[in-house]
Predict the structure of Glucose-6-phosphate 1-dehydrogenase.
Amino acid sequence: MVSRVIPVDDFDLVIFGATGDLAHRKILPGLFRRFVAGQIPATSRIIGAARTEQDDHAFRDEAARAISEFAGVKANDPRLAQFLDLLGYVAIDARGEGGWTDLKARVRDGAVQAFYFSVAPALFGDIAERLANFGIVDSRSRIVVEKPFGRDLDSARALNATLARHFDEHQIYRIDHYLGKETVQNLMAVRFANILFEPLWNAQFIDHVQITVAETVGVAGRGSYYDKSGAIRDMVQNHMMQLLCLIAMEPPYHFDPDAVRDEKLKVIRALEPLEPGDIVRGQYQADGREPGYLDDSENPESRTESYVAMKVRISNWRWQGTPFYLRTGKKLRARTSEIAITFKEPPHSIFEDAGAPKANELVIRLQPNEGMNLKVMIKEPGPGGMRLVQVPLDMSFADALGTDGSDMPDAYERLIMDVIRGNQTLFMRGDEVEAAWAWTDPIIDAWEDSKRLPEPYDAGSSGPEEALRLMHRDNRRWREIRA
């Protein structure tokens, strides 16, 4: 199956922080791939903006090196030369006056205008103010802001208020790359485009849900940043909250940006406050071969968690009594992100001598090897009577769609193209961000008041023992973490 490529309108995209890591690793390579796919018109312009003093040619050379490294393209590829012709550069002083007049002269009035804030949140207000004061933007312009969207409710409100002084909500695209993953969007398709699952998608038939985001890397190299954040701010409050919302939300009346985001907001507001025993914090420790979190963070007194597991309850008719178990951590056994929906066991088994039926399970795998599988019970092949065995009905996107996965758009590619189209469905709204912080803040405050140290766990393990007990007390088990 070959995916259809629908070109976007002619656009000017300004990337603030264009010399930074995100631009090099994701934004520029992603734009190049969309150009090669025929989605970006050759008349479009991509303008880098950063503090570094350099001209267009130097920036194009820098972009060529990044694209060669992270998009796997050879430096002499003629398509790369064609793409580089779209690029320009302006040296900008985000908190001063330098470069803004030059930028205004480069941005066209007739094209779609998008401004990507790939910079620290502390600069969002300065850049937004100068874009408005220098007359670079109008009511049709769009801005893309990267997380973190604040570090608590107060700072999130302040950030939203800062952006709202110069842009309307429909112009602000708060990007969370998890929502751009193919499988995350397929979760909505599976739920709302198939009659098979939606009648069963409730507490009557679903026993529990597990959401796992496990990483094998530690925080070395970004320890000072991470130590001010921790797992709940870095992952739970945004990425995992979004996955939870997509699983638990009611069907929107239409696949429309505000309709979808209204339903997600209802889920967040229905989350029950966590009980003290429903959350486990962990911190990976040195094992003699590799450093522990305290070494990587360069803070021997740190109480910041590199792992968190929690039992979440949703107070509404659909989910009353069905727990959602969330866990995420660094330096775990394997790198994997998945959602597992475990259905209840049949109320009565007629196969007394064939083995106990196991619960059906729908597993949605976000990374690696995006895909889904549904575990069902069948008869074991062969003579000798009825013997039951559980097997997966597996659908990896690589197999089902006839691709090796290399031509599947990266999350950033898809989301940036949605910005150009003006489609906010996969972006977070301001009230949604604030509601997530309103639920998360009391958890963080309780940790800080308790003065308790995180539970230690070995690098390469599945996390702290206390997290296992969180499940065992409910007579459930975490799914094995494996690549």
About this structure: DSSP finds 15 helices and 15 strands in the chain. The first strand starts at residue 11 and ends at 16.
